[in-house]
Amino acid sequence: MADPLAWIPEQLELLESLERRRSIHIRATQQGPSVDWKERELLNFSSNDYLNLAADPRLEAAACEAIQREGWGSGASPLITGRGQNQASLEVALAQFEATEAALTFASGFAANAGVIDALADRGDVILSDEKNHASIIDGTRLSKATVRVYPHRDLQYLENLLKQCSTFRRRLIVTDTLFSMDGDIAPLPELADLAEAYDAMLMVDEAHATGVFGENGRGLCEQFDVEDRVSIRVGTFSKALGGHGGFVVGSEPLIHWLVNRCRPYIFSTAPPAANAGAMLAALKIVHDEPQRRTDLLAKAKWLRGKLREIGWSLGDSESQIIPVIVGTENLAMTLSAQLHEMGMMVPGIRPPSVPDGECLLRISLSCGHTQQHLDTLVEALTELRLG
Ligand SMILES: *Cc1c(COP(=O)(O)O)cnc(C)c1O
């Protein structure tokens, strides 16, 4: 009998011939801004560990303590018996940190986005989604039975025209990343809130890259723009600046109760381990107690953006710790990434399907653990590569 999976190696070969076959590697250790990679220590400009918390001993200690009290696995979904003391405490602390009525934690940010959109919009509703939204938002729109309209990146005029045509739908849901994960640019949140109010739409935002980084208290860009009261659904993740794992949603009590009853990845997925909840309680405390981490990070990012633009690299509209060096072709992005690797720096080249064809880039992500010397090293390398 013919192998029913024979098509897969053929398709993999096709990817190989296009030089688009990707594989995963093992890194040894990751300590702050450096990473051991195939027996070489590289400066790490590729991680989303923006506040340098992933290897913080305080998170480790909190995780160990949680394991000692609750064990490792949670054994069931939260609605059955999986919700332990650490997870419950984390949801309370998170709502407090985010200044919302309630919070709900998920196994991942991906699951949160995909599940929440599906739970909020059904047949007869319409979802309006920015074209550069994260894959998990896109998958949420695909899971939902609602009609989906994608608007060009941050194009308010286009969105308003769409909204005008959407008045006959039962409900409208506008959904956007606040800080876009590849371009490092920012959604026009006050204007989006204006449109949501004018056209009677729900507004959902994904703060994945902004939590812990932006806003006076580190709550993200809704806080920075002072629109928290106007954004009814906020998704975030523990897996980036907070240095851990898992996603969350914050908002009103009724929203959270609805999700507990209707959000499938919440209902049908085993609760995250207590150790993660314990560590994330510690991370929230650090974000509160050590605001210098975020101010320092943003100051370094601003300095680096200035330098790189000065040398003549195109950084698009980046205004954050995510700094894309937009080079265009896949070949150039991958070559530059390899050259930087040779020079001792890990800066990933980003290519389709993560970005559209012809918009390939080097994605620099900064951490508050990078020193001025680390930044100087990167600037020197990118100066040399620019001239070369
Ligand atoms: C990383 C990311 C997610 C997914 O979060 P995980 O917790 O890693 O699953 C969601 N949205 C955006 C914008 C992201 O960048």
UniProtKB/TrEMBL annotation:
Residues bearing N6-(pyridoxal phosphate)lysine are 240
- What reaction is this protein's catalytic activity? 6-carboxyhexanoyl-[ACP] + L-alanine + H(+) = (8S)-8-amino-7-oxononanoate + holo-[ACP] + CO2
According to its UniProt entry, the protein's GO biological process terms are: biotin biosynthetic process
Q: Which UniProt keywords apply?
A: Biotin biosynthesis, Pyridoxal phosphate, Transferase
The enzyme class is transferase
The segment(s) forming the Aminotransferase class I/classII large domain are: 41-382
**Cofactor section:** pyridoxal 5'-phosphate
Q: Quote the CDD domains the UniProt record gives.
A: KBL_like (cd06454)
Q: What molecular functions are annotated in GO for this chain?
A: 8-amino-7-oxononanoate synthase activity; pyridoxal phosphate binding
Going by the entry's taxonomy, the superkingdom of the source organism is recorded as Bacteria
* PROSITE patterns in the record: AA_TRANSFER_CLASS_2
**Which Enzyme Commission number(s) are on file for it?**
2.3.1.47
The pathway that the record names for this protein is: Cofactor biosynthesis; biotin biosynthesis
Write down the InterPro entries for this protein, in alphabetical order.
Aminotrans_II_pyridoxalP_BS, Aminotransferase_I/II_large, AON_synthase_class-II, AONS_Archaea/Proteobacteria, PyrdxlP-dep_Trfase, PyrdxlP-dep_Trfase_major, PyrdxlP-dep_Trfase_small
Known NCBIfam families for this protein? Answer: bioF (TIGR00858)
Q: What does this protein do?
A: Catalyzes the decarboxylative condensation of pimeloyl-[acyl-carrier protein] and L-alanine to produce 8-amino-7-oxononanoate (AON), [acyl-carrier protein], and carbon dioxide.
User: Which family does this protein fall into?
Assistant: Belongs to the class-II pyridoxal-phosphate-dependent aminotransferase family. BioF subfamily.
Quaternary structure and interacting proteins, as annotated: Homodimer.
Q: What name is this protein filed under?
A: 8-amino-7-ketopelargonate synthase
